[in-house]
Write a structure and sequence with these properties.
The chain is mostly helical. Helix content is about 65%, strand content about 10%. The relative contact order is 0.14. InterPro entries: DUF1656.
């Protein structure tokens, strides 16, 4: 079953909402990691950031499936 969210008459897929939430969480995580100096140990920062986003997105979607 496909779930959609109604935003003022426009139906938006759930995945778009989860993608936005994962983006905000990854932006926060990137700031915290940069502040802590973690990126000194990372070989390719852009690749690491992309992987972090995908992991957060997968975690949010998996967690949301539990509550549906």
């Amino acid at each position: 079953m496909t779930h959609e969210i109604d935003l003022y008459g426009v139906f938006v897929p759930d995945l778009l909402v989860w993608m936005a939430a994962a983006f905000l969480l990854s932006a926060l995580a990137r700031r915290l990691l940069a502040f802590a100096g973690f990126y000194r140990f990372v070989w390719h920062r852009a690749l690491f950031d992309a992987a972090l986003y995908v992991i957060l997105l997968g975690g949010l979607v998996a967690a949301s499936q539990r509550f549906v």
